[in-house]
Amino acid sequence: RDLVQEALDTEAVSHELCLDPEVAAVEMTDQLCREDGMDDMIARIRKTGANRLVVAACAFCVKKQQVHRMADLADLPVQCVAGVDVITSIITAAEKASGAEKDPAGGKTAFVIQPMVRQIRTGIFQVKTMSLAPGKGGDMFSRALVVGGGIAGMTAALAIAGQGFAVDLVEKSPALGGNLAWLHPGSEDLTAFLEDRKAAVLAHDRIRVHTRTCVHSTTGRPGLWETRLVPVHSADEDRPSHTDDAVLTDSSKGASSIHQVRHGAVVLAVGGNQADPGIATCETGPGIYTQKGFQQALDNNTIDTSAPVRVAMIQCWGSRQNGRNYCSRVCCPRCLEQALFLKNRNPDSQVHVFYRDMMTPGLLETLYTQARQAGILFFPYEKQNPPCLEPDDNGCRITWSDAILGRSMEMGVDYVVLATGVTPNLTLDLAQIFGADLDQFGFFGQADSKWRPVEALQPRVLACGLALEPANIASSLATARAAAARAVAILSQERVQPEHDMARVRNAYCSLCRLCIFACPYGARHVDHQAGVLVIDPLACQGCGICAAVCPSGAAVVDGISPTHMLDIINTALSGHG
Prior knowledge:
- This protein has about 575 residues and is α/β, with parallel strands linked by helices.
- The strands form nine sheets. The protein has a five-stranded parallel sheet with strand order 6-5-4-10-21, covered by helices on one side. Strands 12-19-13-14-15 form a five-stranded parallel sheet.
- Helix 12 packs parallel to helix 13 (about 365-375).
Protein backbone atom coordinates (compact mmCIF):
# COMPACT_ATOMS: atom_id res chain seq x y z
CA ARG A 1 0.00 0.00 0.00
CA ASP A 2 2.83 2.40 0.85
CA LEU A 3 4.42 1.67 -2.53
CA VAL A 4 1.16 2.45 -4.32
CA GLN A 5 0.59 5.69 -2.40
CA GLU A 6 4.15 6.78 -3.05
CA ALA A 7 3.95 6.03 -6.76
CA LEU A 8 0.42 7.27 -7.45
CA ASP A 9 -0.02 10.91 -8.40
CA THR A 10 -3.82 11.30 -8.25
CA GLU A 11 -3.83 14.81 -9.70
CA ALA A 12 -1.84 13.69 -12.72
CA VAL A 13 -4.19 10.74 -13.26
CA SER A 14 -7.26 12.97 -13.09
CA HIS A 15 -5.71 15.49 -15.46
CA GLU A 16 -4.79 12.84 -18.05
CA LEU A 17 -8.21 11.16 -17.95
CA CYS A 18 -10.17 14.42 -18.09
CA LEU A 19 -8.52 15.24 -21.39
CA ASP A 20 -11.21 13.00 -22.84
CA PRO A 21 -14.29 15.30 -23.10
CA GLU A 22 -16.62 12.33 -22.54
CA VAL A 23 -15.21 11.66 -19.05
CA ALA A 24 -17.67 13.35 -16.69
CA ALA A 25 -15.63 12.99 -13.51
CA VAL A 26 -12.73 11.16 -11.87
CA GLU A 27 -13.37 10.19 -8.26
CA MET A 28 -10.64 8.91 -5.91
CA THR A 29 -11.05 6.74 -2.82
CA ASP A 30 -9.02 4.28 -0.78
CA GLN A 31 -12.07 2.88 1.04
CA LEU A 32 -13.85 0.98 -1.75
CA CYS A 33 -13.50 -2.33 0.11
CA ARG A 34 -15.51 -0.96 3.05
CA GLU A 35 -19.30 -0.70 3.09
CA ASP A 36 -19.28 2.97 4.07
CA GLY A 37 -16.65 3.68 1.41
CA MET A 38 -18.78 1.91 -1.21
CA ASP A 39 -21.89 3.89 -0.20
CA ASP A 40 -19.98 7.17 -0.33
CA MET A 41 -18.61 6.38 -3.79
CA ILE A 42 -22.05 5.41 -5.14
CA ALA A 43 -23.45 8.73 -3.87
CA ARG A 44 -20.64 10.60 -5.62
CA ILE A 45 -21.23 8.69 -8.87
CA ARG A 46 -24.93 9.52 -8.82
CA LYS A 47 -24.14 13.18 -8.19
CA THR A 48 -22.01 13.36 -11.34
CA GLY A 49 -24.89 12.07 -13.50
CA ALA A 50 -22.56 9.67 -15.33
CA ASN A 51 -24.27 6.90 -17.29
CA ARG A 52 -21.23 4.66 -17.59
CA LEU A 53 -18.65 3.63 -15.04
CA VAL A 54 -15.06 2.36 -15.03
CA VAL A 55 -13.79 0.99 -11.71
CA ALA A 56 -9.98 1.12 -11.54
CA ALA A 57 -8.92 -0.65 -8.37
CA CYS A 58 -7.37 -3.83 -6.96
CA ALA A 59 -8.18 -7.31 -8.28
CA PHE A 60 -10.76 -7.95 -5.53
CA CYS A 61 -12.74 -4.79 -6.19
CA VAL A 62 -12.95 -5.38 -9.95
CA LYS A 63 -13.98 -9.03 -9.93
CA LYS A 64 -17.29 -9.73 -11.61
CA GLN A 65 -19.43 -9.98 -8.46
CA GLN A 66 -18.19 -6.64 -7.15
CA VAL A 67 -18.61 -4.87 -10.48
CA HIS A 68 -22.17 -6.21 -10.83
CA ARG A 69 -22.92 -5.04 -7.30
CA MET A 70 -21.70 -1.54 -8.08
CA ALA A 71 -23.79 -1.52 -11.24
CA ASP A 72 -26.89 -2.44 -9.24
CA LEU A 73 -26.20 0.18 -6.56
CA ALA A 74 -25.58 2.88 -9.15
CA ASP A 75 -28.66 1.87 -11.20
CA LEU A 76 -26.54 1.27 -14.28
CA PRO A 77 -26.79 -1.62 -16.80
CA VAL A 78 -24.17 -4.27 -16.12
CA GLN A 79 -22.70 -3.94 -19.60
CA CYS A 80 -22.00 -0.25 -18.95
CA VAL A 81 -19.71 -0.90 -15.99
CA ALA A 82 -16.14 -2.17 -16.48
CA GLY A 83 -13.50 -3.16 -13.97
CA VAL A 84 -9.77 -2.56 -14.47
CA ASP A 85 -7.09 -4.00 -12.16
CA VAL A 86 -4.62 -1.11 -11.99
CA ILE A 87 -2.93 -1.89 -8.66
CA THR A 88 -0.86 -4.68 -10.16
CA SER A 89 0.29 -2.45 -13.00
CA ILE A 90 1.11 0.38 -10.56
CA ILE A 91 3.26 -1.90 -8.42
CA THR A 92 5.04 -3.33 -11.46
CA ALA A 93 5.70 0.11 -12.95
CA ALA A 94 6.82 1.53 -9.58
CA GLU A 95 9.30 -1.30 -9.07
CA LYS A 96 10.72 -0.69 -12.53
CA ALA A 97 10.86 3.05 -11.88
CA SER A 98 12.75 2.59 -8.63
CA GLY A 99 15.61 0.94 -10.47
CA ALA A 100 15.64 3.24 -13.49
CA GLU A 101 16.72 6.78 -14.13
CA LYS A 102 13.58 8.91 -13.97
CA ASP A 103 12.54 11.37 -16.60
CA PRO A 104 13.19 14.79 -14.96
CA ALA A 105 10.30 16.30 -16.91
CA GLY A 106 7.74 13.62 -16.20
CA GLY A 107 8.80 12.21 -12.86
CA LYS A 108 6.45 9.48 -11.75
CA THR A 109 4.13 10.15 -14.67
CA ALA A 110 6.53 8.79 -17.24
CA PHE A 111 7.02 5.50 -15.37
CA VAL A 112 3.79 4.88 -13.49
CA ILE A 113 0.96 7.16 -14.49
CA GLN A 114 0.97 6.70 -18.26
CA PRO A 115 0.71 2.85 -18.23
CA MET A 116 -2.13 3.10 -15.73
CA VAL A 117 -3.93 5.79 -17.73
CA ARG A 118 -3.68 3.70 -20.91
CA GLN A 119 -5.19 0.76 -19.04
CA ILE A 120 -8.08 2.86 -17.70
CA ARG A 121 -8.73 4.37 -21.12
CA THR A 122 -9.05 0.88 -22.54
CA GLY A 123 -11.86 0.33 -20.02
CA ILE A 124 -13.41 3.68 -20.99
CA PHE A 125 -13.51 2.72 -24.66
CA GLN A 126 -14.99 -0.64 -23.64
CA VAL A 127 -18.08 0.96 -22.05
CA LYS A 128 -18.40 3.98 -24.39
CA THR A 129 -20.25 2.15 -27.13
CA MET A 130 -22.31 -0.18 -24.93
CA SER A 131 -26.06 0.29 -25.11
CA LEU A 132 -27.87 1.75 -22.11
CA ALA A 133 -30.97 -0.28 -22.94
CA PRO A 134 -32.10 -2.61 -20.15
CA GLY A 135 -31.89 -6.35 -20.58
CA LYS A 136 -34.36 -7.94 -22.94
CA GLY A 137 -37.44 -9.60 -21.60
CA GLY A 138 -36.85 -13.23 -20.72
CA ASP A 139 -39.90 -14.89 -22.28
CA MET A 140 -39.81 -18.29 -20.66
CA PHE A 141 -41.97 -21.01 -19.16
CA SER A 142 -41.06 -20.97 -15.48
CA ARG A 143 -40.93 -24.73 -14.95
CA ALA A 144 -38.30 -27.38 -15.58
CA LEU A 145 -38.23 -30.82 -17.19
CA VAL A 146 -35.93 -33.43 -15.63
CA VAL A 147 -35.39 -36.52 -17.79
CA GLY A 148 -34.34 -39.48 -15.66
CA GLY A 149 -35.50 -40.61 -12.24
CA GLY A 150 -32.26 -41.90 -10.76
CA ILE A 151 -30.57 -40.39 -7.75
CA ALA A 152 -29.18 -37.48 -9.82
CA GLY A 153 -32.52 -36.71 -11.45
CA MET A 154 -34.41 -36.85 -8.15
CA THR A 155 -31.85 -34.61 -6.45
CA ALA A 156 -32.04 -32.04 -9.26
CA ALA A 157 -35.85 -32.10 -9.23
CA LEU A 158 -36.01 -31.58 -5.47
CA ALA A 159 -33.51 -28.72 -5.58
CA ILE A 160 -35.39 -26.90 -8.35
CA ALA A 161 -38.79 -27.47 -6.74
CA GLY A 162 -37.39 -26.31 -3.42
CA GLN A 163 -36.79 -22.89 -4.98
CA GLY A 164 -40.44 -22.54 -5.96
CA PHE A 165 -40.45 -23.82 -9.56
CA ALA A 166 -42.64 -26.62 -10.89
CA VAL A 167 -40.85 -29.71 -12.19
CA ASP A 168 -41.84 -32.61 -14.45
CA LEU A 169 -39.69 -35.63 -13.53
CA VAL A 170 -39.59 -38.31 -16.20
CA GLU A 171 -38.46 -41.93 -15.81
CA LYS A 172 -38.75 -44.77 -18.33
CA SER A 173 -38.90 -47.63 -15.81
CA PRO A 174 -41.86 -48.40 -13.53
CA ALA A 175 -40.18 -46.93 -10.43
CA LEU A 176 -37.70 -44.25 -9.42
CA GLY A 177 -34.22 -45.12 -8.23
CA GLY A 178 -32.04 -45.80 -11.25
CA ASN A 179 -28.81 -47.65 -10.52
CA LEU A 180 -29.32 -47.37 -6.76
CA ALA A 181 -32.08 -49.95 -7.17
CA TRP A 182 -29.39 -52.63 -7.60
CA LEU A 183 -26.55 -50.91 -5.75
CA HIS A 184 -28.32 -50.36 -2.45
CA PRO A 185 -28.84 -53.96 -1.17
CA GLY A 186 -26.31 -54.69 1.54
CA SER A 187 -26.01 -51.04 2.53
CA GLU A 188 -28.53 -49.82 5.06
CA ASP A 189 -27.36 -46.22 4.66
CA LEU A 190 -27.94 -46.25 0.89
CA THR A 191 -31.28 -48.01 1.27
CA ALA A 192 -32.55 -45.40 3.73
CA PHE A 193 -31.13 -42.58 1.61
CA LEU A 194 -32.85 -43.85 -1.54
CA GLU A 195 -36.20 -44.39 0.16
CA ASP A 196 -36.08 -40.95 1.77
CA ARG A 197 -35.27 -39.32 -1.56
CA LYS A 198 -38.09 -41.18 -3.35
CA ALA A 199 -40.58 -40.30 -0.63
CA ALA A 200 -39.58 -36.63 -0.78
CA VAL A 201 -40.05 -36.53 -4.56
CA LEU A 202 -43.44 -38.26 -4.50
CA ALA A 203 -44.69 -36.04 -1.68
CA HIS A 204 -43.55 -32.72 -3.18
CA ASP A 205 -46.48 -30.67 -4.46
CA ARG A 206 -44.38 -28.98 -7.17
CA ILE A 207 -43.05 -32.21 -8.71
CA ARG A 208 -45.09 -34.25 -11.20
CA VAL A 209 -43.63 -37.74 -11.51
CA HIS A 210 -43.93 -39.50 -14.88
CA THR A 211 -42.92 -43.16 -14.95
CA ARG A 212 -43.16 -45.52 -17.93
CA THR A 213 -43.05 -42.48 -20.24
CA CYS A 214 -40.70 -41.21 -22.95
CA VAL A 215 -39.79 -37.93 -24.63
CA HIS A 216 -41.18 -38.18 -28.12
CA SER A 217 -40.52 -34.71 -29.54
CA THR A 218 -40.50 -31.04 -28.68
CA THR A 219 -41.71 -27.87 -30.34
CA GLY A 220 -41.16 -24.20 -29.67
CA ARG A 221 -37.76 -22.72 -28.97
CA PRO A 222 -35.33 -22.66 -26.03
CA GLY A 223 -37.08 -21.34 -22.96
CA LEU A 224 -40.48 -21.90 -24.54
CA TRP A 225 -40.38 -25.66 -25.12
CA GLU A 226 -43.51 -27.75 -25.43
CA THR A 227 -42.38 -31.35 -25.08
CA ARG A 228 -44.53 -34.32 -26.01
CA LEU A 229 -44.45 -37.19 -23.49
CA VAL A 230 -45.56 -40.64 -24.61
CA PRO A 231 -46.24 -43.72 -22.45
CA VAL A 232 -43.73 -46.49 -23.03
CA HIS A 233 -46.26 -49.14 -24.04
CA SER A 234 -47.64 -46.95 -26.86
CA ALA A 235 -44.38 -45.26 -27.78
CA ASP A 236 -43.15 -48.13 -29.96
CA GLU A 237 -45.79 -47.44 -32.61
CA ASP A 238 -44.88 -43.85 -33.40
CA ARG A 239 -41.66 -42.64 -31.88
CA PRO A 240 -38.12 -42.03 -33.09
CA SER A 241 -35.29 -44.22 -31.87
CA HIS A 242 -34.05 -41.63 -29.36
CA THR A 243 -36.91 -42.36 -27.00
CA ASP A 244 -35.47 -45.76 -26.07
CA ASP A 245 -33.34 -44.05 -23.46
CA ALA A 246 -35.40 -40.98 -22.72
CA VAL A 247 -38.50 -42.36 -21.14
CA LEU A 248 -40.76 -40.62 -18.65
CA THR A 249 -44.34 -41.22 -17.41
CA ASP A 250 -47.06 -40.74 -14.88
CA SER A 251 -47.83 -44.17 -13.50
CA SER A 252 -47.74 -42.79 -9.97
CA LYS A 253 -50.85 -40.81 -10.76
CA GLY A 254 -52.41 -43.31 -13.14
CA ALA A 255 -52.03 -41.27 -16.32
CA SER A 256 -51.33 -43.08 -19.57
CA SER A 257 -52.31 -40.63 -22.32
CA ILE A 258 -50.01 -38.65 -24.57
CA HIS A 259 -49.64 -35.13 -23.24
CA GLN A 260 -47.55 -31.96 -23.56
CA VAL A 261 -45.47 -30.26 -20.89
CA ARG A 262 -44.20 -26.70 -21.10
CA HIS A 263 -40.81 -25.88 -19.64
CA GLY A 264 -38.09 -23.27 -19.82
CA ALA A 265 -35.13 -25.48 -18.84
CA VAL A 266 -34.32 -29.17 -19.17
CA VAL A 267 -32.00 -31.36 -17.09
CA LEU A 268 -30.86 -34.59 -18.76
CA ALA A 269 -30.22 -37.15 -16.04
CA VAL A 270 -30.84 -40.38 -17.93
CA GLY A 271 -27.98 -42.14 -16.16
CA GLY A 272 -25.77 -44.90 -17.48
CA ASN A 273 -25.23 -48.62 -17.48
CA GLN A 274 -22.41 -51.11 -17.48
CA ALA A 275 -20.70 -51.61 -20.83
CA ASP A 276 -21.14 -54.79 -22.84
CA PRO A 277 -18.33 -57.20 -21.91
CA GLY A 278 -18.23 -58.60 -25.43
CA ILE A 279 -18.24 -62.22 -24.24
CA ALA A 280 -20.83 -64.61 -22.79
CA THR A 281 -21.45 -64.08 -19.09
CA CYS A 282 -23.54 -65.99 -16.56
CA GLU A 283 -26.67 -64.75 -18.28
CA THR A 284 -25.73 -67.16 -21.10
CA GLY A 285 -23.01 -69.34 -19.62
CA PRO A 286 -21.46 -70.40 -16.26
CA GLY A 287 -18.56 -68.92 -14.36
CA ILE A 288 -18.28 -65.39 -15.80
CA TYR A 289 -20.09 -62.34 -14.38
CA THR A 290 -20.09 -58.60 -14.90
CA GLN A 291 -19.74 -56.53 -11.74
CA LYS A 292 -23.46 -55.76 -11.77
CA GLY A 293 -24.40 -59.38 -12.36
CA PHE A 294 -22.06 -60.54 -9.60
CA GLN A 295 -23.50 -58.00 -7.15
CA GLN A 296 -27.01 -59.17 -7.93
CA ALA A 297 -25.94 -62.80 -7.50
CA LEU A 298 -24.46 -61.95 -4.08
CA ASP A 299 -27.59 -60.06 -3.04
CA ASN A 300 -29.88 -62.87 -4.19
CA ASN A 301 -27.71 -65.56 -2.54
CA THR A 302 -27.28 -67.26 -5.90
CA ILE A 303 -23.66 -67.81 -4.92
CA ASP A 304 -22.97 -69.58 -1.63
CA THR A 305 -20.39 -67.29 -0.08
CA SER A 306 -20.38 -69.12 3.26
CA ALA A 307 -18.23 -71.83 1.61
CA PRO A 308 -14.75 -71.02 0.27
CA VAL A 309 -14.83 -69.79 -3.32
CA ARG A 310 -12.15 -68.92 -5.85
CA VAL A 311 -12.81 -65.61 -7.61
CA ALA A 312 -10.81 -63.66 -10.19
CA MET A 313 -11.73 -60.01 -10.75
CA ILE A 314 -10.45 -58.37 -13.93
CA GLN A 315 -10.47 -54.57 -14.04
CA CYS A 316 -10.70 -52.34 -17.14
CA TRP A 317 -12.17 -55.14 -19.27
CA GLY A 318 -12.74 -53.49 -22.65
CA SER A 319 -12.32 -49.98 -21.25
CA ARG A 320 -9.51 -47.41 -21.12
CA GLN A 321 -8.67 -48.23 -24.72
CA ASN A 322 -9.75 -47.15 -28.19
CA GLY A 323 -13.49 -46.55 -28.28
CA ARG A 324 -13.88 -46.13 -24.52
CA ASN A 325 -10.63 -44.50 -23.47
CA TYR A 326 -11.76 -43.17 -20.10
CA CYS A 327 -11.83 -44.32 -16.48
CA SER A 328 -15.33 -45.03 -15.14
CA ARG A 329 -14.24 -44.15 -11.56
CA VAL A 330 -16.57 -46.64 -9.88
CA CYS A 331 -15.22 -50.08 -10.90
CA CYS A 332 -12.19 -50.30 -8.61
CA PRO A 333 -14.05 -49.29 -5.40
CA ARG A 334 -16.88 -51.73 -6.27
CA CYS A 335 -14.31 -54.49 -6.93
CA LEU A 336 -12.68 -53.92 -3.53
CA GLU A 337 -16.04 -53.88 -1.76
CA GLN A 338 -17.05 -57.16 -3.37
CA ALA A 339 -13.66 -58.74 -2.60
CA LEU A 340 -13.81 -57.69 1.06
CA PHE A 341 -17.39 -58.99 1.28
CA LEU A 342 -16.22 -62.43 0.13
CA LYS A 343 -13.34 -62.43 2.60
CA ASN A 344 -15.61 -61.35 5.46
CA ARG A 345 -18.06 -64.13 4.63
CA ASN A 346 -15.31 -66.77 4.54
CA PRO A 347 -11.65 -65.90 5.14
CA ASP A 348 -10.63 -69.05 3.23
CA SER A 349 -12.03 -67.69 -0.03
CA GLN A 350 -9.36 -66.88 -2.60
CA VAL A 351 -9.77 -63.55 -4.37
CA HIS A 352 -7.41 -62.44 -7.15
CA VAL A 353 -7.61 -58.96 -8.67
CA PHE A 354 -6.08 -58.32 -12.11
CA TYR A 355 -5.61 -54.62 -12.73
CA ARG A 356 -3.93 -52.00 -14.90
CA ASP A 357 -4.23 -49.22 -12.29
CA MET A 358 -6.16 -49.34 -9.03
CA MET A 359 -8.17 -46.11 -8.89
CA THR A 360 -9.14 -45.40 -5.27
CA PRO A 361 -9.16 -41.62 -4.83
CA GLY A 362 -9.40 -39.91 -1.47
CA LEU A 363 -10.62 -41.95 1.49
CA LEU A 364 -11.34 -44.94 -0.79
CA GLU A 365 -7.63 -45.75 -0.51
CA THR A 366 -8.50 -47.41 2.82
CA LEU A 367 -10.40 -50.10 0.88
CA TYR A 368 -7.21 -51.05 -0.95
CA THR A 369 -5.27 -51.19 2.33
CA GLN A 370 -7.95 -53.37 3.93
CA ALA A 371 -7.96 -55.69 0.91
CA ARG A 372 -4.20 -56.23 1.09
CA GLN A 373 -4.42 -56.90 4.81
CA ALA A 374 -7.24 -59.41 4.21
CA GLY A 375 -5.05 -61.50 1.91
CA ILE A 376 -6.53 -60.44 -1.43
CA LEU A 377 -3.88 -60.77 -4.15
CA PHE A 378 -3.30 -58.15 -6.85
CA PHE A 379 -1.74 -58.89 -10.25
CA PRO A 380 -0.89 -56.07 -12.71
CA TYR A 381 -1.29 -56.56 -16.45
CA GLU A 382 -0.63 -54.50 -19.57
CA LYS A 383 -3.35 -53.17 -21.87
CA GLN A 384 -2.00 -55.08 -24.85
CA ASN A 385 -1.82 -58.38 -22.93
CA PRO A 386 -4.97 -58.88 -20.81
CA PRO A 387 -5.76 -62.15 -19.02
CA CYS A 388 -7.29 -64.90 -21.19
CA LEU A 389 -10.45 -66.71 -20.11
CA GLU A 390 -11.59 -70.23 -20.92
CA PRO A 391 -14.84 -71.44 -19.31
CA ASP A 392 -14.95 -75.10 -18.21
CA ASP A 393 -17.25 -77.39 -16.27
CA ASN A 394 -15.85 -76.27 -12.91
CA GLY A 395 -15.97 -72.54 -13.58
CA CYS A 396 -13.24 -70.88 -15.63
CA ARG A 397 -9.53 -71.13 -16.30
CA ILE A 398 -7.59 -67.91 -16.48
CA THR A 399 -4.18 -67.46 -18.10
CA TRP A 400 -2.05 -64.35 -17.71
CA SER A 401 1.51 -63.10 -18.06
CA ASP A 402 2.97 -62.37 -14.62
CA ALA A 403 4.97 -59.13 -14.72
CA ILE A 404 7.11 -60.05 -11.69
CA LEU A 405 7.95 -63.66 -12.56
CA GLY A 406 8.19 -62.85 -16.26
CA ARG A 407 6.33 -65.94 -17.42
CA SER A 408 2.86 -67.19 -18.23
CA MET A 409 0.66 -68.35 -15.33
CA GLU A 410 -2.58 -70.31 -15.20
CA MET A 411 -5.15 -71.12 -12.53
CA GLY A 412 -8.70 -72.33 -12.21
CA VAL A 413 -11.37 -70.28 -10.46
CA ASP A 414 -15.04 -70.74 -9.65
CA TYR A 415 -16.05 -67.29 -10.84
CA VAL A 416 -14.64 -64.46 -12.95
CA VAL A 417 -15.92 -60.90 -12.44
CA LEU A 418 -15.39 -58.45 -15.31
CA ALA A 419 -15.31 -54.70 -14.61
CA THR A 420 -16.48 -53.40 -17.98
CA GLY A 421 -16.90 -49.76 -17.02
CA VAL A 422 -19.79 -47.35 -17.51
CA THR A 423 -21.51 -46.15 -20.67
CA PRO A 424 -24.12 -43.34 -20.72
CA ASN A 425 -27.77 -43.91 -21.58
CA LEU A 426 -27.93 -40.53 -23.29
CA THR A 427 -28.53 -40.79 -27.03
CA LEU A 428 -27.65 -38.30 -29.73
CA ASP A 429 -31.28 -38.00 -30.84
CA LEU A 430 -32.48 -37.07 -27.37
CA ALA A 431 -29.69 -34.52 -26.88
CA GLN A 432 -30.31 -32.92 -30.25
CA ILE A 433 -34.04 -32.54 -29.56
CA PHE A 434 -33.02 -29.81 -27.11
CA GLY A 435 -30.09 -28.47 -29.12
CA ALA A 436 -27.33 -30.30 -27.21
CA ASP A 437 -24.66 -32.71 -28.45
CA LEU A 438 -22.54 -35.62 -27.23
CA ASP A 439 -18.80 -35.86 -26.70
CA GLN A 440 -16.60 -38.46 -28.36
CA PHE A 441 -17.52 -41.11 -25.78
CA GLY A 442 -21.27 -40.55 -25.82
CA PHE A 443 -21.53 -38.42 -22.68
CA PHE A 444 -23.21 -35.00 -22.60
CA GLY A 445 -21.34 -32.39 -24.64
CA GLN A 446 -20.27 -29.73 -22.10
CA ALA A 447 -20.06 -26.11 -23.21
CA ASP A 448 -16.81 -25.88 -21.23
CA SER A 449 -15.45 -28.52 -18.87
CA LYS A 450 -14.16 -25.89 -16.43
CA TRP A 451 -16.43 -22.84 -16.65
CA ARG A 452 -19.73 -24.38 -17.81
CA PRO A 453 -19.44 -28.07 -16.89
CA VAL A 454 -23.16 -28.92 -16.64
CA GLU A 455 -24.39 -26.80 -19.57
CA ALA A 456 -24.66 -27.35 -23.30
CA LEU A 457 -23.87 -24.51 -25.67
CA GLN A 458 -27.57 -23.74 -25.30
CA PRO A 459 -27.45 -22.76 -21.60
CA ARG A 460 -31.00 -23.88 -20.83
CA VAL A 461 -30.00 -27.51 -21.52
CA LEU A 462 -28.24 -29.07 -18.54
CA ALA A 463 -27.06 -32.53 -17.54
CA CYS A 464 -25.96 -34.35 -14.41
CA GLY A 465 -25.03 -37.78 -13.11
CA LEU A 466 -23.77 -40.53 -15.42
CA ALA A 467 -25.27 -38.81 -18.46
CA LEU A 468 -22.74 -36.02 -17.88
CA GLU A 469 -19.62 -38.01 -17.01
CA PRO A 470 -18.47 -41.16 -15.19
CA ALA A 471 -19.17 -40.53 -11.52
CA ASN A 472 -19.76 -42.15 -8.15
CA ILE A 473 -22.78 -41.30 -6.00
CA ALA A 474 -21.18 -38.27 -4.36
CA SER A 475 -20.11 -36.79 -7.70
CA SER A 476 -23.53 -37.47 -9.21
CA LEU A 477 -25.19 -35.60 -6.37
CA ALA A 478 -22.78 -32.69 -6.78
CA THR A 479 -23.48 -32.37 -10.52
CA ALA A 480 -27.22 -32.66 -9.85
CA ARG A 481 -27.09 -29.73 -7.43
CA ALA A 482 -24.97 -27.74 -9.87
CA ALA A 483 -27.44 -28.34 -12.71
CA ALA A 484 -30.35 -27.43 -10.44
CA ALA A 485 -28.64 -24.22 -9.32
CA ARG A 486 -28.08 -23.20 -12.91
CA ALA A 487 -31.67 -24.05 -13.86
CA VAL A 488 -32.99 -21.96 -10.97
CA ALA A 489 -30.77 -19.03 -11.97
CA ILE A 490 -32.14 -19.17 -15.51
CA LEU A 491 -35.80 -19.59 -14.54
CA SER A 492 -35.52 -16.74 -12.03
CA GLN A 493 -34.54 -14.12 -14.59
CA GLU A 494 -37.37 -11.77 -15.48
CA ARG A 495 -35.01 -9.93 -17.79
CA VAL A 496 -31.80 -11.30 -19.28
CA GLN A 497 -29.05 -8.76 -18.65
CA PRO A 498 -26.03 -9.62 -20.84
CA GLU A 499 -22.70 -9.69 -19.03
CA HIS A 500 -20.70 -9.31 -22.22
CA ASP A 501 -20.96 -7.96 -25.75
CA MET A 502 -24.09 -9.29 -27.43
CA ALA A 503 -25.21 -9.43 -31.03
CA ARG A 504 -28.20 -7.49 -32.29
CA VAL A 505 -30.03 -7.15 -35.58
CA ARG A 506 -30.59 -3.97 -37.57
CA ASN A 507 -33.94 -5.06 -38.96
CA ALA A 508 -34.05 -2.36 -41.63
CA TYR A 509 -31.09 -4.08 -43.34
CA CYS A 510 -32.11 -7.71 -42.63
CA SER A 511 -33.49 -9.74 -45.55
CA LEU A 512 -34.12 -12.85 -43.41
CA CYS A 513 -31.66 -14.88 -45.46
CA ARG A 514 -30.97 -16.97 -42.32
CA LEU A 515 -27.25 -17.31 -43.00
CA CYS A 516 -26.54 -16.08 -39.47
CA ILE A 517 -28.92 -18.69 -37.99
CA PHE A 518 -27.03 -21.52 -39.66
CA ALA A 519 -23.65 -20.02 -38.71
CA CYS A 520 -24.39 -19.35 -35.01
CA PRO A 521 -22.71 -22.11 -32.95
CA TYR A 522 -24.89 -21.37 -29.92
CA GLY A 523 -28.32 -21.55 -31.55
CA ALA A 524 -28.99 -18.02 -30.33
CA ARG A 525 -30.88 -16.72 -33.39
CA HIS A 526 -34.34 -17.51 -34.72
CA VAL A 527 -37.02 -15.92 -36.87
CA ASP A 528 -40.14 -14.57 -35.20
CA HIS A 529 -42.58 -15.42 -37.98
CA GLN A 530 -45.39 -13.43 -36.42
CA ALA A 531 -43.38 -10.21 -36.31
CA GLY A 532 -41.35 -11.02 -39.42
CA VAL A 533 -38.02 -10.22 -37.77
CA LEU A 534 -34.93 -12.09 -36.64
CA VAL A 535 -34.62 -12.36 -32.85
CA ILE A 536 -31.56 -12.89 -30.61
CA ASP A 537 -31.67 -15.12 -27.54
CA PRO A 538 -29.76 -12.94 -25.02
CA LEU A 539 -29.01 -15.89 -22.74
CA ALA A 540 -27.48 -18.04 -25.46
CA CYS A 541 -25.61 -15.35 -27.40
CA GLN A 542 -21.92 -15.20 -26.46
CA GLY A 543 -20.99 -12.21 -28.62
CA CYS A 544 -18.58 -14.20 -30.78
CA GLY A 545 -19.34 -12.11 -33.90
CA ILE A 546 -19.68 -14.99 -36.37
CA CYS A 547 -23.12 -13.70 -37.36
CA ALA A 548 -21.65 -10.31 -38.22
CA ALA A 549 -18.95 -11.97 -40.29
CA VAL A 550 -21.38 -13.96 -42.46
CA CYS A 551 -24.14 -11.34 -42.83
CA PRO A 552 -24.06 -10.06 -46.43
CA SER A 553 -26.04 -6.91 -45.69
CA GLY A 554 -24.43 -5.71 -42.46
CA ALA A 555 -27.63 -6.28 -40.49
CA ALA A 556 -25.89 -8.39 -37.84
CA VAL A 557 -23.70 -6.40 -35.48
CA VAL A 558 -22.21 -6.92 -32.02
CA ASP A 559 -22.81 -4.24 -29.40
CA GLY A 560 -19.57 -2.73 -28.17
CA ILE A 561 -17.51 -4.06 -31.07
CA SER A 562 -17.31 -1.62 -33.96
CA PRO A 563 -14.30 -0.76 -36.13
CA THR A 564 -14.03 2.65 -34.43
CA HIS A 565 -14.24 1.10 -30.98
CA MET A 566 -11.61 -1.54 -31.69
CA LEU A 567 -9.22 0.95 -33.31
CA ASP A 568 -9.58 3.25 -30.29
CA ILE A 569 -8.64 0.41 -27.94
CA ILE A 570 -5.68 -0.63 -30.08
CA ASN A 571 -4.47 2.95 -30.39
CA THR A 572 -4.72 3.50 -26.64
CA ALA A 573 -2.93 0.25 -25.84
CA LEU A 574 -0.06 0.95 -28.22
CA SER A 575 0.28 4.70 -27.68
CA GLY A 576 3.01 5.78 -25.34
CA HIS A 577 1.14 8.95 -24.44
CA GLY A 578 -2.50 7.76 -24.49
